[in-house]
Design goal:
The complex is a heterodimer of chains A (604) and B (441).
Chain A: H1 10-70, H2 75-85, E1 93-100, E2 105-108, H3 123-127, E3 135-140, E4 147-157, E5 160-170, H4 172-222, H5 237-272, E6 276-280, E7 286-289, H6 291-297, H7 301-304, H8 309-312, H9 321-326, E8 331-334, E9 343-352, E10 358-367, H10 369-404, H11 411-442, E11 450-454, H12 455-469, E12 475-479, E13 486-490, H13 491-508, E14 514-522, E15 525-531, H14 554-559, H15 566-576, E16 580-586, E17 590-598
Parallel strand pairs in A: 12-14
Antiparallel strand pairs in A: 1-2, 1-5, 3-4, 4-5, 6-7, 6-10, 8-9, 9-10, 11-13, 14-15, 15-17, 16-17
Helix pairs in contact in A: 1-2, 1-4, 4-5, 10-11, 11-15, 12-13, 13-15
Chain B: H1 3-26, H2 51-54, E1 59-64, E2 67-71, H3 74-85, E3 88-91, E4 106-115, H4 117-123, E5 125-126, H5 131-135, E6 140-147, E7 154-159, E8 166-172, H6 176-185, E9 189-196, E10 199-204, E11 208-219, H7 226-229, E12 237-239, E13 244-246, E14 251-255, E15 258-262, H8 276-287, E16 294-301, E17 308-316, E18 319-322, E19 334-340, E20 343-350, E21 352-365, H9 368-378, E22 388-395, E23 405-416, E24 419-422, H10 423-431
Parallel strand pairs in B: 3-5, 18-22
Antiparallel strand pairs in B: 1-2, 1-4, 2-9, 3-8, 4-6, 6-7, 7-8, 9-10, 11-21, 11-23, 12-13, 13-14, 14-15, 15-20, 16-17, 17-18, 17-19, 19-20, 22-23, 23-24
Classes of the chains: A alpha+beta (604), B alpha+beta (441).
C-alpha cells in the first residue's frame, strides 16, 4: 500500500477545512465590519460636515443680519461680512459658496473667489435653492474622480430665507482610513489563518494518528499478519473504531483460519477425487481445474486457464455457454483416440452469487469409458447370444416345417432333416453349456481341482487322442522337450482348453495342412504353442479373438459348428490357473495360439 | 500526563483565550494616559432665581368707577402678587362673571408678556382636578380679580394681551379685604388704557419722573459659558481670536458684549416635551446664569412639542432695560433661549453683570398718550403697528474698556415687528435733537 501523500491526507484536508472556515468567517466578518465601518464613518463624516455647514450657515445668516442692521445701504459691506465667515475654514473643504435666492453666488471660499457675482448653474444648488432643510449628496467629481460629500444648507436671516450655503468636502481622506482599516483586517485575517493552520495541523494529528495506525494494521492484515493491534488511546469515536477494528481483526483471523482449513480440505478433495472438476467464470472461461480433470482431458491447467470450457470439452459445435447454464442432464464426451477409447460424462452446475446472479459454472467430469464398454459388450453379448440361439432354432423350424409339409413321407429326406435338426439341437446344447460355463467362470462359481501333472505326458495323451480320431488329411507335428515338467493344473479344464484350440486349428487347417504342437520352457513357465496353416487372422482382429462370440468369419465359423465361445472359455480357464494366453497370426499363413502356465518347481 | 488530560487542558486554554479575545474586542479600551474622571468645571456664574421672581407682573391696576389707577412699584406689586399666588383658582363656565357692572373695584396684575398656561400654573395655584385648564392654549398676560356682585365670592378673569380671550375662574383662599388693603396702601396713579396692535396697554396718564441709573459692570468671560453650553468642554476649540468657540457641531461667539450660541445640528424629534418658559428658567437656574434682575418678557411657540423661544429682560428698579442699537446689541439687556426637541438650539444674552450704584439726573417722561401722539405726528412711525409701549431704561453698549461704568437712561420704548425702538431716538431722527424727554429738573 502506497503511503498517502500529504496533500491527499486527512490531516491536510482538516487543516484546509479549518483555514477555509476561518477564511469564510473572516470574510463574512470583514464584509459586514467593513460595510458597517464604511457606513458609520461616512455617516459620521457627513453629519460632521452637516453640522459644520449649519454653523457656517448660521454664521453667514448672523453676519448678514448684523451687516444689514449696521449698514443698510451698503451691499458691499454685507458681501464682505459673508466673505469673512468663509475664511479660516477646514482645509479639507473643497468649495464653499453662498448663493442668494437669485442663484447669484454672493460669496465663496478663497480658492473660488472668481465665481463671486456670477450666476450658478449647479443643478444641486438650483434644485435646493428654496429648500428649508439641509440636503446631502454623495457624488464623484467627473474630472478628478474624487469622491465628495455635498451639503446644501438654507441660510436664514431673521427667520427669512436668504439663500443656501453650498459646501463640498472630499471623501478621500475617509476612504483612505477605510482602506487602512481593511488592510488591518486583511493582516489580521492572514495572521488568524496562519495560527489556525498551525494549530489545526497539530490538532488534526490527534485524530489522524490512530487512523495511520489503523492503516498500518490494515496493511499488516492484508499481508496476513493478524497479530498486530491498534492501540486505543482515548475512548472517543476513533478509540471505539480502534477497538472494533481489533475485534474485526481477531474475527478475521479466525475466519481466515477456518477458510484456510476449508480451502485445504477442498483442495485435497479436488486433488484426490476421481472426478475431474472444472470451474469457469460467468463467461465460461476456465479459472480452475483439478488434477483429475487434467488427466481426463489430457491438458495442463496452465495452458487452458482462461480458455472457454466449450473449447476445452470440445463441445462448441453442439452447445453455447448459455446452454450449459440451463443444462440439467449430463452429456457424454468422446475423447477417444486411435489408440484408446475415452468416454467422459460431464455434469454442469451453476454457481450463483448471494444476490442470485449467475457467477459461473462447475463442470464435474467422470470417466465412463469402462462402464460404456461394459454396457456395449453386454448389449453385444445379448445380441450374439440371441443371434446364436436363433440361428439353429430357425434352421430347426425350417426343417420341422418341411417335415410337417410332407417331407416326413420321404424316409431318406426325413432322416436327413431329422439329422440336421438333431445337430442343430446339439449345437444349441453346446452353446448353452458354453454359456453356463462362462457364466460360472464370470461369477467365480466353479471349483478348480489342481493336480500335479507332468505336462508333456499330459499333452502327448491329448495329441494321441486327436491323432487317432482325426478324419481330415492333417499332419500333427509335435515338438516336446525332453524331460519332465510338472504343472499344477485342473486336468479336465486344461484338456478342454487344448481340445478347443486343437479343434479350431483342425477346423481352419486346409487339406493336407500341418498342425504344430510345441512346448518350450521359458524360465519358471512352460509355454505351449499350437499353430495351424489356415487363412490366419487379420492383425487388427487379433486382440478380439478372445472376446465372446467373436468370429473373424462368422458364416464359416458357424458352418463349422463353433459357438464363438471356445477361445473366451479358454482364456478364462488359463487365467484361472495362473497362466496367460494370446494369439499370433499372419494373414494367409496361419495362426498360432500361445499359452503359458507356471511350472511347479517342487522336486520332480 | 494522559493524552486526554493534555488535550482537555489545551482545548480549555484555547476556549479561555477565545473568550478573552472576544471580551477584549467587545469591550476594547485604548491604553490612554490616566486622567481624573472626577474633574469638574464650574458652571455657576451668578445665582438662581425662583420662578415667581422671573415670571412676575410689572403693573398693578385698580379699575373703579373713576377709571384706571395703577402702580409699577415692584415691592407693591410683589405683595399683591404673593397674595394672589396663595389663592386657588378654579375654572368656571359662568361667563357672566366678568360682565358684572357692579361698583366693586377690579384689581388687575399685568405681566410684561403673555404666559402659557403651563407657566401660569407655576406661579398661580389652579385646581389640580381641572384637567381642561392644562389643555388650554391660551396666552395670558393679565389677571383681574373682583368680588361677585353679591359679595360672597371672589372671581378672577385671566386675559390674553388683547383682552379678547378670557379664562374665568373663581378664587378660593383669598381675602378680598386684604387685597383691597394692599391697594389702599399703595400710591396709585391714573393710567390710560390704550389699544395697540394686538395688545391692550395701560400707560401712565401723567408724567413719569425717573433717574438715570449709573452702574458699574463686570464683563463675563466667554470661557465661563463653555462648560454650560457644550456637552464636551474638552473638545471645544477657539477661533477668531478667542471670540468664537466651537466643537464642530455647536458654536459660541462673542459680539461686543453679547454672547451668541447656536446648536444647528439638532435633528431628533424625540425630545421630552417641556414648556419653553419654564424650561428656560430651570436651565438658567441650573447654571445660575441670572446675573441681575430679569423679568420674563416673551415667548414664541413653534409647535405643541415645546419648540420655541423664551426671552427675559433685565430690570433696573421698577423698569425694564432696553438696547435699541444694532443687532446683536439688543441682547445687552436681554436673554433669549430657543429650544428644539428639548435641546437648547440658541442662546443669546448679555455678558455684562451690572452693579448699580445709584441714580442721577431726574428725567420726566411724557404720558403715554402724549408719546403716541408725538410718534404719530412727528415721526414716520406707524402707530397702528406698534405692538407694545413701555417705559424703561436705555442701556448703550459700552465701547470703552477703560470705563467700567455704564449709564441707563430712562426712555419710552415701542415695539414693532418684535423689535424694540427708542421713542427718543425716533423723535430725534425725525426732529433733530428734539425728544420726548424733558430736561432734568
Amino acid at each position: 500500500m502506497n503511503k498517502v501523500g500529504f496533500f491527499k491526507s486527512i490531516q491536510f484536508k482538516m487543516v484546509l477545512i479549518y483555514t477555509l472556515l476561518i477564511l469564510l468567517a473572516m470574510q463574512l466578518i470583514g464584509v459586514y465590519f467593513s460595510d458597517r465601518v464604511k457606513t458609520i464613518t461616512l455617516d459620521s463624516f457627513e453629519k460632521s460636515l452637516e453640522s459644520q455647514s449649519q454653523l457656517i450657515s448660521w454664521n453667514v445668516g448672523e453676519a448678514i443680519r448684523e451687516a444689514r442692521d449696521t449698514n443698510v445701504d451698503d451691499p458691499n459691506h454685507v458681501t464682505d461680512q459673508i466673505q469673512n465667515q468663509l475664511m479660516e475654514l477646514d482645509n479639507n473643504i473643497r468649495e464653499v459658496e453662498v448663493i442668494d435666492e437669485n442663484t447669484v453666488i454672493v460669496a465663496a471660499d478663497e480658492k473660488h473667489e472668481d465665481v463671486v457675482g456670477k450666476r450658478t448653474t449647479n443643478r444641486l444648488i438650483i434644485q435646493n435653492l428654496s429648500s428649508n432643510v439641509t440636503n446631502k449628496y454623495r457624488r464623484t467629481d467627473h474630472k478628478s474622480g474624487e469622491r465628495v460629500d455635498i451639503v446644501t444648507t438654507p441660510i436664514k436671516v431673521d427667520n427669512q430665507h436668504y439663500g443656501i450655503l453650498y459646501v463640498e468636502k472630499s471623501f478621500e481622506s475617509v476612504y483612505a482610513q477605510l482602506q487602512q482599516i481593511n488592510q488591518i483586517l486583511a493582516s489580521a485575517t492572514i495572521f488568524a489563518l496562519l495560527v489556525t493552520a498551525v494549530l489545526g495541523f497539530f490538532l488534526a494529528r490527534t485524530i489522524t494518528r490512530p487512523l495511520v495506525q489503523m492503516q498500518r494494521q490494515v496493511l499488516a492484515v492484508s499481508q496476513g499478519n493478524f497479530t498486530r493491534k491498534v492501540q486505543m488511546t482515548e475512548p472517543d469515536e476513533i478509540g471505539q473504531l480502534a477497538t472494533s477494528f481489533n475485534n474485526m481483526t481477531m474475527k478475521l483471523r479466525e475466519a481466515n483460519a477456518t477458510t484456510e482449513s476449508e480451502r485445504r480440505k477442498l483442495k485435497s478433495v479436488l486433488t484426490y477425487m476421481t472426478d475431474g472438476v472444472i470451474a469457469t467464470d460467468r463467461k465460461g472461461n476456465v479459472i480452475l481445474m483439478n488434477n483429475r480433470a487434467e488427466q481426463l482431458l489430457g491438458v495442463y491447467r496452465h495452458d487452458v486457464t482462461g480458455n472457454s470450457i466449450l473449447d476445452l470439452l470440445k463441445i462448441r459445435k453442439e452447445h453455447k455457454i448459455m446452454d450449459l447454464y440451463e443444462l440439467t442432464d449430463s452429456i457424454v464426451l468422446d475423447f477417444s483416440t486411435d489408440d484408446e477409447t475415452i468416454l467422459l460424462r460431464a455434469n454442469f452446475s451453476v454457481v450463483k452469487k448471494d444476490n442470485g446472479i449467475t457467477n459461473g459454472l462447475i463442470a464435474v467430469i467422470h470417466d465412463v469409458t469402462e462402464q460404456e464398454q461394459v454396457d456395449m459388450e453386454r448389449r453385444e453379448f445379448v445380441a450374439n447370444v440371441s443371434h446364436e440361439l436363433r440361428t439353429p432354432l430357425t434352421t430347426m423350424k425350417s426343417y420341422l416345417e418341411a417335415l410337417q409339409d410332407g417331407a416326413v413321407e420321404d424316409a431318406a429326406l426325413a432322416t436327413k432333416f431329422l439329422g440336421v435338426t438333431q445337430r442343430e439341437t446339439e449345437r444349441m446344447i453346446r452353446l448353452v453349456n458354453d454359456l453356463l460355463q462362462l457364466s460360472r467362470l464370470d461369477s467365480r462359481d466353479y471349483k478348480i481341482h489342481l493336480e500335479r501333472t507332468e505336462y508333456v505326458e499330459f499333452c502327448q495323451s491329448i495329441m494321441d487322442r486327436f491323432e487317432m480320431s482325426k478324419k481330415q488329411n492333417i499332419e500333427f507335428v509335435r515338438y516336446f522337450p525332453r524331460g519332465s515338467f510338472y504343472v499344477n493344473v485342473d486336468r479336465d479344464k486344461l484338456t478342454q482348453v487344448i481340445d478347443n484350440i486343437l479343434s479350431n486349428a483342425i477346423k481352419y487347417s486346409p487339406e493336407g495342412g500341418t498342425i504344430t504342437f510345441r512346448i518350450t520352457r521359458r524360465g519358471r513357465n512352460i509355454r505351449t504353442m499350437i499353430s495351424d496353416q489356415g487363412v490366419g487372422i487379420p492383425k487388427e482382429n487379433l486382440p478380439k479373438i478372445f472376446n465372446r462370440f467373436y468370429r473373424v468369419d462368422r458364416a464359416r465359423s458357424r458352418k463349422l459348428g463353433g459357438t464363438g465361445l471356445g477361445l473366451a472359455i479358454a482364456k478364462e480357464m488359463i487365467e484361472a490357473q495362473g497362466g496367460e494366453i494370446w494369439a499370433e497370426s499372419d494373414w494367409n499363413r496361419g495362426t498360432t495360439i500361445h499359452f503359458v502356465l507356471p511350472l511347479d518347481r517342487r522336486d520332480n | 500526563m494522559h493524552r486526554e488530560v493534555f488535550k482537555s487542558i489545551l482545548l480549555g486554554a484555547l476556549v479561555l483565550a477565545s473568550v478573552t479575545m472576544t471580551f477584549n474586542i467587545l469591550f476594547y479600551k485604548s491604553d490612554f494616559e490616566n486622567y481624573n474622571p472626577n474633574s469638574t468645571k464650574r458652571v455657576a456664574i451668578a445665582q438662581a432665581r425662583n420662578i415667581p421672581e422671573v415670571i412676575r407682573p410689572n403693573l398693578m391696576l385698580e379699575h373703579n368707577s373713576n377709571g384706571e389707577f395703577g402702580q409699577n412699584s415692584t415691592n407693591q406689586i410683589q405683595r399683591v402678587y404673593t397674595l394672589l399666588r396663595q389663592s386657588i383658582f378654579r375654572e368656571s363656565t359662568n361667563y357672566t362673571i366678568g360682565q358684572g357692572t357692579n361698583n366693586n373695584p377690579h384689581y388687575t396684575l399685568v405681566f410684561p408678556a403673555p404666559l402659557t398656561i403651563d407657566a401660569l400654573s407655576k406661579v398661580f395655584s389652579f385646581d389640580d382636578n381641572d384637567k381642561s385648564l392644562t389643555r388650554s392654549k391660551l396666552l395670558i398676560d393679565r389677571v383681574e380679580v373682583f368680588s361677585s356682585p353679591n359679595g360672597r365670592n371672589v372671581n378672577a378673569v385671566f386675559y390674553s394681551p388683547d383682552e379678547r380671550s378670557k379664562l374665568y375662574t373663581t378664587v378660593d383662599h383669598l381675602n378680598m379685604n386684604n387685597l383691597k388693603g394692599l391697594y389702599v396702601d399703595t400710591n396709585l396713579h391714573p393710567y390710560d388704557r390704550q389699544a395697540l396692535n394686538g395688545k391692550i396697554v395701560y400707560l401712565p396718564d401723567n408724567k413719569t419722573y425717573m433717574y438715570s441709573e449709573i452702574s458699574y459692570y463686570q464683563r463675563l468671560s466667554l470661557e465661563e459659558f463653555i462648560p454650560i453650553l457644550f456637552t464636551d468642554p474638552d473638545n471645544v476649540f477657539p477661533s477668531r481670536g478667542k471670540t468664537e468657540y466651537t466643537d464642530s457641531e455647536r458654536q459660541m461667539e462673542r459680539t461686543n458684549n453679547v454672547i451668541q450660541f447656536v446648536n444647528p445640528g439638532i435633528t431628533s424629534s424625540s425630545g421630552q416635551k417641556q414648556d419653553p418658559i419654564i424650561g428656560s428658567i430651570e436651565w438658567m437656574n441650573n447654571f445660575k446664569i441670572w446675573t441681575d434682575n430679569y423679568i420674563y418678557q416673551g415667548v414664541s411657540l413653534k409647535n405643541s412639542r415645546g419648540d420655541g423661544t423664551a426671552t427675559f429682560r433685565m430690570t433696573l428698579g421698577n423698569y425694564m432695560v432696553f438696547n435699541t442699537e444694532t443687532y446683536p446689541n439688543w441682547y445687552l439687556s436681554l436673554i433669549e433661549l430657543s429650544w428644539k426637541s428639548g435641546e437648547l438650539s440658541n442662546y443669546r444674552g448679555t455678558l455684562l453683570d451690572l452693579n448699580p450704584v445709584g441714580g442721577q439726573g431726574r428725567i420726566a417722561l411724557d404720558s403715554g398718550k402724549e408719546i403716541l401722539d408725538q410718534l404719530s405726528s412727528n415721526t414716520n412711525v406707524q402707530v397702528k403697528k406698534i405692538e407694545d409701549l413701555t417705559i424703561g431704561y436705555e442701556l448703550k453698549n459700552p465701547t470703552s474698556d477703560s470705563d467700567q461704568s455704564i449709564s441707563a437712561t430712562p426712555d419710552w420704548f415701542y415695539k414693532i415687528g418684535g423689535r424694540w425702538y427708542s421713542v427718543t431716538s425716533a423723535l430725534m431722527n425725525a426732529r433733530g435733537i428734539n425728544s420726548g424727554k424733558e430736561t432734568p429738573s
